[in-house]
Task: inverse folding
C-alpha cells in the first residue's frame, strides 16, 4: 500500500507570496492532519480534516488555511508569506481517529523556504 | 504554550546499553500518549503508544512508562542499536483529534 505523499518536496518563495501544498493520504484513510516543524519547536498542529470538514485547528493565524477533497486528498495554503513561515510542513493520515488509537502515518514533508 | 516538553535535546548512548527518553506534559486532559521516531528527510513514524488507563506498555525493545500523578512519561530502548539513532518525539492527545508534540530528543547510539 502506498504511503502518504506530499508535493512538492521543496519550495522557495519570497515574502508576500502565497503557496499551496498538497497531500495524498494512504488509500482508505479519511483523516488528514497538517503540522509545521521548526527547529526547537517540534511539530505544531495546524489543522485536521475528516470527510471534507475541518474538525480541529491549532493556534495559527488565518493566513494558514486548508481543505480536503472528496477523495480525501488535502491541500494547505499559506498566504502573504513571512520569513517565519520557513519550515518543514508535514501531513499525516489515519483511518478516522487522528491522535487516538488509529495510527497517524506521516509523509516526508514539504520544505518551504521563504526569502 | 508548549504543553508537551522534552527537556533533553540530545542523548548519546553506547550500543547495547539502555536509552531513556523523558517527556513531561502539563495538560491534565491528555489521556493518550505516543512516541514517534524521525530520520532525516523522512516523516515521523509511529513507535509505541500508551493509554492513561495503563502505566506501562511494551513492544519488543521499546517500553513506555506513564506516571500520571507526575505528568511524566518515558521511553526505554533496550538494547540500543545503531539504527535507533534518530530524533524521538513524544506526543499527547485528548479527544480533540490533534496531537501535541514535544520538541524532540536526538539520540545517537555509539558503536
Result:
Amino acid at each position: 500500500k502506498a504511503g502518504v505523499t506530499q508535493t512538492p518536496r521543496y519550495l522557495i518563495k519570497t515574502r508576500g507570496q502565497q503557496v499551496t501544498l498538497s497531500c495524498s493520504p494512504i488509500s482508505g484513510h479519511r483523516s488528514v492532519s497538517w503540522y509545521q516543524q521548526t527547529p526547537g519547536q517540534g511539530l505544531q498542529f495546524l489543522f485536521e480534516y475528516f470527510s471534507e470538514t475541518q474538525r480541529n485547528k491549532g493556534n495559527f493565524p488565518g493566513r494558514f488555511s486548508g481543505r480536503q477533497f472528496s477523495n480525501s486528498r488535502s491541500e494547505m495554503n499559506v498566504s502573504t508569506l513571512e520569513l517565519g513561515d520557513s519550515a518543514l510542513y508535514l501531513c499525516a493520515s489515519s483511518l478516522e481517529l487522528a491522535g487516538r488509537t488509529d495510527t497517524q502515518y506521516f509523509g516526508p514533508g514539504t520544505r518551504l523556504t521563504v526569502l | 504554550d508548549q504543553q508537551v516538553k522534552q527537556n533533553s535535546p540530545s542523548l548519546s548512548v553506547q550500543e547495547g546499553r539502555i536509552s531513556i527518553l523523558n517527556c513531561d506534559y502539563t495538560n491534565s486532559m491528555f489521556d493518550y500518549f505516543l512516541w514517534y521516531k524521525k530520520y532525516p528527510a523522512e516523516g515521523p513514524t509511529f513507535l509505541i503508544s500508551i493509554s492513561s488507563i495503563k502505566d506501562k506498555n511494551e513492544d519488543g525493545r521499546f517500553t513506555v512508562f506513564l506516571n500520571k500523578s507526575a505528568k511524566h512519561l518515558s521511553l526505554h530502548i533496550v538494547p540500543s542499536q545503531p539504527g535507533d539513532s534518530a530524533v524521538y518525539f513524544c506526543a499527547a492527545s485528548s479527544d480533540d483529534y490533534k496531537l501535541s508534540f514535544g520538541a524532540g530528543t536526538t539520540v545517537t547510539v555509539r558503536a
Notes: The mean pLDDT of chain A is 93. The interface with chain B takes residues 4, 31, 33, 35, 40-45, 48, 50, 55-56, 58, 90, 92, 97-101, 103-109 of chain A (CB under 8 Å). DSSP finds no helices and eleven strands in chain A.
